[in-house]
Amino acid sequence: MKPLVAIVGRPNVGKSTFFNRMIGERLAIVEDMPGTTRDRLYGDTDWNGREFTLIDTGGLELGTGVPVGQVGLHGQSGDLMDHVMAQAQLAIEEADVIVFMVDARSGITSADEDVAHQLRQTRKPVIVAANKADNKDRRMDAVEFYTLGLGEPIVISSIQGIGTGDLLDRIVEELPPAEEMEEEDEEGLIRISIVGRPNVGKSSLLNAITGSKRSIVSDVPGTTRDAIDTTIEFEGHKIRLVDTAGIRRRGRIGAGVEKYSVLRSERAIDRSDVSILMLDATEGLAAQDTHIAGAIHDQAKGVIVVVNKWDLAQEQRKAEREGVYAHPNDEIQSAEEYREILAEGLKFIPYAPIVFASAKTGYHVKSILEAAIKIAEMRYLRVPTSRLNELVQEATRRHSPTVIRHKPLKIYYATQARVNPPTFVFFVNDTEAVHFSYERYLENRLREAFSFRGTAIRLQFRPRSAKEQREDRR
Question: Which residues form a coiled coil (predicted)?
């Protein structure tokens, strides 16, 4: 698992500029997946051989009506200051290293002092980055940031690239040792995360799963400093529920920062084999739901979509029919109609099973665990090479590849490169001749033939080796 580095600070100090300079272009290329609408709030980067996830708190919508650029140096808007302080608190709770960005042009503001006071309460490493030091005078003036009591400030200009290497060097120095971030593999262990936006019932499902009928084996520290994992036994299987502390923790953060729930979910997803994506049946599909689903898909994890509070939704619909209640979401009338909504809104994970459940009453909770176990087992399925190539030949006979730029695609052979997730490599004459629609067709054929339900699978296309090409020309 990658360590987390959060950039905090008041608006307009250059957090997003630094973030985009570090990983903006790479993020747009790597994570621009059709059908997903994830905000560019975080991205992976590396420096001197260490990988880490960088968080741009400036990528978060304020939700206060206060324009980001119109911030006074003193006497800030109460809502805006609440938001800035919430950023700092979230960084304290979630990050391994905190970069506190300030503006070298304007000097220290009361907002900077308030955030610095909050950051001094944490034991986590805090690095002060004095941004916008675009000339010698500003670099000299930046020494005043020593008075924040957070150590030597690093002087940078995100736009010009001045000092960014020094800042990255310091970040890498402060990261936890790589071995602390590694998960130990335990044979037969299934890692499951319960993810979803606030108030969809994650805590209730966790309590239902860890109820009296199932024995809790242990609560163990996760790889983040405040994460706790819970291990249970269920029908002969050992299951580790990832980051149960994050699920149980009530939302102590103020309004305007709900998207940070994606952040915690992202880390839990990264550490799991299967993610349970929880939705609220009484509210329908929200943008935040698609964000989290996109994270699961991007990381090629197993997934179950759980439509929670189904009992409450049914009661509301009954009351509506009797004329005593007006349902706020009149699109949703039945399970079948709900499935249609999910098929459209979550069309990038069509392989995900959907379970209508009630964590409160226990309805279908057992089915959720049973489905998660089946999906985890499918992620370790190995397809014999001979059977795989028979399928490829059959698929190409049934539907010839699309011709791109007058060059037909030719698939020579395929092999399974790895499991968890199942990854298949196709050796072809020209990787640029692979149309996305034909890749989807091959994926669907693999799913039909080998029952890869509930898990992402990866397809990779490579040219044959030079030696194979020479032999083919003989």
Answer: none
